[in-house]
Structures
1.
Amino acid sequence: MKSYRKELWFNVPTRRAFINITPRVMEALRESGIQEGLCLVNAMHITASVFINDDESGLHRDYEDWLEDLAPHEPIEQYSHNRTGEDNADAHLKRQVMGREVIVAITEGRLDFGPWEQIFYGEFDGRRRKRVLVKIIGE
Amino acid sequence: MKSYRKELWFNVPTRRAFINITPRVMEALRESGIQEGLCLVNAMHITASVFINDDESGLHRDYEDWLEDLAPHEPIEQYSHNRTGEDNADAHLKRQVMGREVIVAITEGRLDFGPWEQIFYGEFDGRRRKRVLVKIIGE
Amino acid sequence: MKSYRKELWFNVPTRRAFINITPRVMEALRESGIQEGLCLVNAMHITASVFINDDESGLHRDYEDWLEDLAPHEPIEQYSHNRTGEDNADAHLKRQVMGREVIVAITEGRLDFGPWEQIFYGEFDGRRRKRVLVKIIGE
């Protein structure tokens, strides 16, 4: 069994953003040399997500509006967590809806994807350096 | 390390449905011959889910009503994504709540399940051919 | 390839609770002797979650309030599932938001975590014995 590990770094200039990281995960897979196995891609921070969906800007606006409706940023006093001096409680909630991680099958050295699957980093509390972990096991 | 890959195909005649795919995943596991490992089951389409919960029709009605309340299909104009000519933005949202994939432990050649766990395909934009990927690694 | 399996048992005295299980997962990892691989941690019951987030009591109150708002326990008659004699339909819904499972990378014999990641058992229908499965594969 082989394993490969890589960190992807982000410094999103806005509070929230969705970034297509598929090319960077594909690059990690090539570096690993693994042909058959599983690829874990997870946010290493608890106010961010990794998820798979469509690379369509209208949909990303819909996600933004919908998540803001489900877990509004303001008023920040509505959240107990923000009494610690934080203002990011909503980001911890939004990340649960979108998820922490994805697992992608590796088949014949490729990400084994359906026709429209793309991997996204979902940032909900940006403006600082944060990381995503790629861990691939197989052979 | 062994690996096994199988696609399960669906053509759901309605827009939305929940289908118990546990027997089909068990069949894939038998075909694989794998005794110890991990089994990934994921929707290959971004308007569908794979999730684990109870095979109880009342609960499935509750999921349907609840998801429609969280992310209504209509009015379709409320979603930016639908300006591309689609009418399935709500399906992309519903799928995030229910999830893209599950990972099931394989122990002694069986799906290592608790007493009521069953695997479902959740269709949110049916009436066409769509796929689920089963990928098993182990030995 | 090595594999290791362990069940963690819970008997939460209240209906709902969040319990930090990171030390118990770390103990299972030590017992496994696995240095590189993947660790699956999943609820074996369909009214409970395993998720990764912050060990901060204010945030846990926020999760409790938010989930109760998204999927209220009462009135219990609002759910078709509860006509079976159950009163836990809301727990099946809450668990979908928080998720069934997490996968954690194992690197150099450690849970490969970001700075604040902790693993929680989320109970939404307690007051009875329930289990979490830890399955580790690697070498």
2.
Amino acid sequence: MSVPDYGRAFALWRGAAPGWQAYTRHAFVEGLRRGDLPRANFLHYLRQDYVFLIHFARAWALAAAKADTLNEMQAASATVHALVHQEMPLHLALCAREGIDAAALEATPEAPANLAYTRYVLEAGYSGDFLDLMAALAPCVLGYGEIGARLAGSGGVYGEWIDTYGGAEYQALCRDVGALIDGALVHRLGEGWDGLPRFTRLSQRFATATRLEVGFWDMGLSGA
Amino acid sequence: MSVPDYGRAFALWRGAAPGWQAYTRHAFVEGLRRGDLPRANFLHYLRQDYVFLIHFARAWALAAAKADTLNEMQAASATVHALVHQEMPLHLALCAREGIDAAALEATPEAPANLAYTRYVLEAGYSGDFLDLMAALAPCVLGYGEIGARLAGSGGVYGEWIDTYGGAEYQALCRDVGALIDGALVHRLGEGWDGLPRFTRLSQRFATATRLEVGFWDMGLSGA
Amino acid sequence: MSVPDYGRAFALWRGAAPGWQAYTRHAFVEGLRRGDLPRANFLHYLRQDYVFLIHFARAWALAAAKADTLNEMQAASATVHALVHQEMPLHLALCAREGIDAAALEATPEAPANLAYTRYVLEAGYSGDFLDLMAALAPCVLGYGEIGARLAGSGGVYGEWIDTYGGAEYQALCRDVGALIDGALVHRLGEGWDGLPRFTRLSQRFATATRLEVGFWDMGLSGA
Amino acid sequence: MSVPDYGRAFALWRGAAPGWQAYTRHAFVEGLRRGDLPRANFLHYLRQDYVFLIHFARAWALAAAKADTLNEMQAASATVHALVHQEMPLHLALCAREGIDAAALEATPEAPANLAYTRYVLEAGYSGDFLDLMAALAPCVLGYGEIGARLAGSGGVYGEWIDTYGGAEYQALCRDVGALIDGALVHRLGEGWDGLPRFTRLSQRFATATRLEVGFWDMGLSGA
């Protein structure tokens, strides 16, 4: 199948990240698709993902603080709002159905792979600027979109998870984020941004974050 | 009239800030109350206040990034959302009625007093933590609440501005922010927070930000 | 006389900053040159400059934290070291001769113009990256170099101050900082950096910091 | 043998960190003591440690930027200076003797355990304040001191490494850093700092950084 179109920077970053296939076609993902991923691993992943989302929301809030235009600020703050007031409550509801209550969820000890990833993203944002944050956040947002698009319609016990990311709403979000990134690059670096050293450095950020996504799935599979 | 109750930290900070009366009973404020503030000064203030709001929203976004609990993050991100998706559009509408369009508003050159204030708040947040941000943000949020409560019902040509800050909705926001601050202090410093050197330092931040609010009104009056 | 050569970015920034002459040929500077600046104003300036230096050293430390190469880190950390272990002690000694002891110096209340400038620089650094810091720091470092070079040999009661900045050691530092900036631009943006929107934004940072330098001299002259 | 005295906060943090023994008595450390650690693992560790030192120096530079007193700033900037102008050149020399040149050293790809640790420390510093940085930096600085003190005199092929950290100079540095931390706590939180929630949170930071030190030794042993 074809790769979804989330803009030009994503296409370039994706092509230059050695770990992209290892991430988006990870055994954990295949287990979700076939429906044979053990429930215990999925729940371990869900718990860690909740802690991840907290830091992810912090990183988008930092993006709003570092935005250069009103449009960037609105896009970033809308994402924070959606994460904090919609996605995290949904996560809570999903976990509650599995017998994990809010207190247990919030008390989840952070796995090393989780900590490595979230702190990498936040530090990229604090040390760098809006573009550094976008490059570090993109593998998660857009990678889940690509996985969702590929797995859409697989059904099975993980069909709900798959449909969340493969659905029209999330796919539209991915296209919006892709456009936000392309616009931010032009705004700062001009039309020839893909030829600048700055872009090479951003590609490295994307590749590192992709590597950390692989570690996150590994953590989910190993249950550690 | 009595001072509105926005919590314990506010009462202490307010009492310890030498410039509090100079800020909340500034000639600019009295001009709003009596309705004899020249329109040109009000418009100059409105334009600068729009630029101020952008940085103010950035500071609240930084607060969301530096929050320590989900509750703090939700409160901060809801404030960003309200600023970016409600207060700034309202500002745009109000200015449009006065013949200042969006492009003119966004192109407003930052007055030195504006720049001094906004960068002080943001730097406090970046250098320090959530509490430093709250202490630097409080004079604006809660001072406008106190001014609004005192001027409520004054009517006159600035009645709309007065009613915004004196109204029930904004007063409720001030009580919420006051509770957020008191809760954040207990969460980090325990019940005896008001006796710690950390609190003295926060009082100094509040006092400095209050001094910068005086400078902001001065700028409004002088038109420079 | 000719303008000293502190590199290509400086030449471009300097040419694009409307306030450059107002800063480098300010009445305060002319008073230093002619020797008729009242002593009280000079001492007021010296006290504020000490507080300024503390924040200036913090900003260079932040530059070391945000450096991208070992060379940038070494240059920034050497500057911090020189400021903290040499320039600030010298300042202390100079003030001591004037009867201002260390305790009095450290207790200096920050003037608004001082606060505006230092927080602008630090916030530029926290919000942005190494280049934003360099653009915000350059007017001070290199402007003093240009002033020193022009005033060198004027003698008079302020001859010691003039010789510090006009002397070979400080002039060499200015050339080093200029080269650091040009190198940092090429490293991130390639050889065509002067044609990118990013550079326009950096020029605006330089111009704003220049405007704040004018405010600093104004503060020195007015004694407020 | 007795534990070295690096101050009160260290004693409390050390006692509350579940992983402290796992870190300071790790198989990698025992291999250094007995001299039977394979050379390849030591060299893998050395390479990664060089990359670590760069980020470690960045973190100390951030501490200088976030210092609250001149004394804190001088202590932090002196550490950066020592790291950048002494320890890193020594590392380069040691590696050169092993046939690893500067270019190879600087090109070392960051191992996940390295990345996790350094970004955790830097993010703690950016998100929090000077105390957060100290708590995150302490396990490395003071843990190496404790290991050095215990292994001192073991001799063997790793005797030079052991003597660096067990020697009088490094032990004095540890006592200075311990005093800096205790002083910073009193300065901000008063004499009763060990009873405040803030201190509990700092202890968690220390414990997390300790856990990441264990991961660093694991990485050294596994060669991955």
3.
Amino acid sequence: MSYARQMLDTYSRTFNVDADLLAAVIDALSDCAQACDADTAADLGEQNVTEMVTCIRLCLDCADICTATARVTSRQTDYDANVNRPLLEACAAICRSCGDECERHARMHEHCRVCAEACRRCERACRELLGATQ
Amino acid sequence: MSYARQMLDTYSRTFNVDADLLAAVIDALSDCAQACDADTAADLGEQNVTEMVTCIRLCLDCADICTATARVTSRQTDYDANVNRPLLEACAAICRSCGDECERHARMHEHCRVCAEACRRCERACRELLGATQ
Amino acid sequence: MSYARQMLDTYSRTFNVDADLLAAVIDALSDCAQACDADTAADLGEQNVTEMVTCIRLCLDCADICTATARVTSRQTDYDANVNRPLLEACAAICRSCGDECERHARMHEHCRVCAEACRRCERACRELLGATQ
Amino acid sequence: MSYARQMLDTYSRTFNVDADLLAAVIDALSDCAQACDADTAADLGEQNVTEMVTCIRLCLDCADICTATARVTSRQTDYDANVNRPLLEACAAICRSCGDECERHARMHEHCRVCAEACRRCERACRELLGATQ
């Protein structure tokens, strides 16, 4: 059981959504941020780094947005749709773009394949949370 | 001249907006993040900390979202409206909420007055950038 | 298998340490940052928030330092002892302080018990990496 | 007057150091983080990106470490030498390395010249604070 899930079990929440879903979103956000940071470094170590520039740029934005969204979602401040919805939408959008670009390099670079998978999972989780809080 | 403005002058940008506006947004985001972190600590040092809980929560979210938005905006990756617009909207919304709450404590706590000002300026800057990139 | 471990398996590293240890450190850092963010929010929701002020302060510093250390360690830039050693030392020290304080509240607040555990695990992981890179 | 300085004037601090110095450190950290993020993006836009790989790697680490140090220093939690000293040392060390690398490209790339200046100023500020808190 992840720390996100354990922490959610210990206190009453203001976010009125299923704890399993919320924990899955937080874990997917942390994993995606980590994968994007690692993929950035791996891309920079490739010989064809010029071809990896778009991938690096997207990984950098994705890591920053996922990190902030993970922190805000972990704290579950009084849910404010005006803040949380566009933040999750921005996060889903960058995970989509970053996942698409990583997938283009997936056959060539195994690190991009793993990162694409983390982005896909995170995009799905963000969209599921958006659906559950409508 | 701020570093944000100096850096913008040194390279051709992909964001098709006025450099003065872009630099003002980046500076306002950094200032707001810093003010919110400082206000969090100042709130925690007040005797009536129980009354400051909402202010602390909002400052924490505002600092995280401003920090991420500052980093993404500083890098000016190929502008993607699906990412940048909701991110700026989330940022403007949390600056609005945080500014409103800080203003409620402005007469009692000078640190909240200064933080409210930083939030207002950041909200305006984000909305101006949103207007300029429509 | 965590994403950190999967990513490490996909590319040759510059950090000359065991991949299992490195992945364990990255995972412990991410978990600790997340637990500290969640604990901050949980502390702010307690009735005796005045007694939780020190815990909140330490959780905030711990979350920021663990987040940065996780990102730097995930990228494994050319290992530079002048940067990496003091960063890991700062991280181990804040995990120690934060874990001690959380433990003081562990019997009263289950969320502090879980957070203390995440801090202890992270402190151990940082010290093990420091030992392995001497 | 920067927001860091204004905020410091509004509340009694636990860090027993001169407010001018503390504000200068916080501003230098924020500026350096911003310059490094902007320089990363500018490097990625250069034709000779392969030659900029080391500069990009160092800018990424420098931005993350400066961001965390700015946040921790802005909050001025009860000063703990075991945490604050190694954190400032890690920060000074990465600013040194990143400033050296940026300087190597300063004649070729104006953005690296500006970033080197931000790194130098930040390194000096961190070392001055280390000296003042001995």
